[in-house]
Amino acid sequence: MAALFPDSYFHIGGDEVNGKQWDANPQIQDFKRSHGLKSNNELQAYFTKRLEKIVSQLHKNMVGWDEILTPGMPNNIVIQSWRGPGSLAAAAKQGYRGLLSNGYYIDLMWSAARHYAVDPMSEATADLTPEEKRHILGGEATMWSEYVGPETIDSRIWPRTAAIAEKLWSPSDVRDVNSMYARLAQISWRLDSLGLTHNTDYIPMLQRIANDEDTAPLRVLADVVEPVKGYRDQFARFKPTSTDPLNRLVDAARPESDAAREFSNLVDSFLAGQCKDAALSARLRRLLTKWHENNLEPLIEKSFLLQEIAPLAQNLSLISSAGLQAIDYIDRGEEPADNWKTEQLALVQEAQQPTSAQLLIMVASPIQRLVEASSGGACHSTK
Known about the structure:
With 383 residues, this protein is of the alpha/beta class.
């Protein structure tokens, strides 16, 4: 391995050792007793120190996750922290160099904005002395491959990783999310020109899932949904294996919906303007009407791969109708009945829950803001 990769750093892993196999192995238990090792943590530390000597002899700097930091480890190792700034700061105080990955796990499907808000020099690391801060090398985005294949891997990495890269090479006071997104859109198309497939594989995957060349109705839905977030929800139905075909809508859907983010921004602008902008109202109506009237039934009947999205499509139609009614009340300056608001908010809350398709309707939250504004909100106080 050392001969294959010329880089001076060599990652050994070392995280989340549960010790179950060690506890069940009589030879390993004998080894622990003969070497005076009282716990599995001590056994791992023994192994890591042996490994560090081998790595060092090969003229490499050993990198490992938080767990390799144990008393007696040489100070030339690098700690990669999945636990967060607190763990990174603790290592720096002991004289160890470190990298932050907590907050940069792109396989968790979080937005570029959420990753952009993470800074290796924040929270606990911000309180380090100037000398200790020099031990913080930066950060590294991490991508795990349980749910990726050749068609999907680029879309799971790009363009969000470009936002992480910018955060890592920028001063800490660079935080303008809107500016970041404007530039991220340009970077995305430039990445296309380099041959990456995060955009180009989207339509072919939808065509195959729909069993139809006309994917327009499916794309209306796909453009405003995102895969569920975090490992708990991702693994809620099954634990993936290498034989999974990755041929569902959740596989084709992008980690972040640009259409939903843009709609959310339109809603915020509309409400910030006290709901008086007729042009914004018209734009919101057009989008909500498109989602409400989108008919996916013919495609769902044609493709068994789409049967699981039927409840999702219905929820999008229902909450879009609620959004349209909310704008009607706002434009007329009328207060809706209390039971109407309660019923619509219940629909929106239900639509925000993950379905068996493991997808989230990302326009649900801004529609909720419209419904809330239609009843007793700032929009009525200025009429």
